[in-house]
Amino acid sequence: MQINGKLPLIFGVPDRAFFEKFGEKKVFVAELRPGLEGMQAVSKGLLKKKITPVVICDNMMAFCMRQGLVSGVHIFYKNLNKDNAVCRTGSLIAALCAKEHNIPVYIHKAAVAKVKISDLRKIGGRLVTNADLKTYCPVFEDVPLELANIEG
Description:
The chain is α/β, with parallel strands linked by helices. It has helices at about 15-20, 40-50, 60-65, 90-100, and strands at about 5-10, 25-30, 50-55, 70-80, 85-90, 105-110, 120-125, 125, 140-145, 150. It has a single domain, classed as 3-Layer(aba) Sandwich (Rossmann fold). It has four helices and ten strands. It is globular and about 45 Å long.
């Protein structure tokens, strides 16, 4: 697929209000490991609003930013406090990469998403590694508010 121009990047699971007010026609969507919610729930919600999702691997965010393909990054918080937003793991690297490439970051309220750490060893519900493999998969991390603009 050819990308002409810049697209916003969605990292996380938006709440319904985000989909209602989002006016873009095409967006990058991070796959969202371990459960692949970006490829499933987020893309489905975008398609319902006639927005074309272009799914990328989570680890392609910086590549797309460096190539000048990303116009802004939208990440989603579970909780806000004075200095940080509690967001899906991976949101911090999305915000830091955006800062490095002078791309604005916007944070929005997240939808409630069920993340299963056991999904880290699966793709499409199918076990792709040894069931005894030890994993480390924190679900949430703090993103300093100094890296983002609060949108809702």
